[in-house]
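User: Second chain of the day. Same drill as before.
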Amino acid sequence: MSQQALKATLEKTIATLQKNPAGGHLVFRAHTRLLDGVRCLAEVRDFPPLIVDEPSELGGSDAGMNPVELVLVALGTCQEIMYAAYAAVLDIPLDEVTVTAKGYLDLHGLFGLQESVPAGYQKIGFETALKSPADPATVRKLVAIVEGHCPVLDTLTRPVEVSGTVTLNGTPLGVPVSHAA
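Assistant: Same format as last time:
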């Protein structure tokens, strides 16, 4: 999609939201299931299923990205999408956006070997490389807007309530899964 077509699409969505603020609430869904070993199948909307697996040193067959790699992919692609969207709406020429993300994970936490070590990432870093004929001041404004409105970056950097339930053979176990924000 061209930058002008993207701008037109986003401006139409923004105008619709301004007329009907209640229409801005979305629910995204994913369905996953364990296939074998640690290999899983992920399904979202009508897209082809995605195989999620672990590298061999973590017991997998290396048939796909692992969940923590997908977090990095989500961050990088969300940044890229937000740059494209805001650049289009603000008429800022943008020739290229790439993101390189790194996550630092300590296996002692993952395997429960040290209670003081978290199971997930301890640190995530990313580098965004932009190519644009726009002046640096304009690009700095774009960066500030993107960094302030990227949904995945926001999700990763603030407390988010997470809850769930567990059933056994279709019967609720009555063990709530909750992580307070």
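The mean pLDDT is 94.

User: Great, on to the next one.
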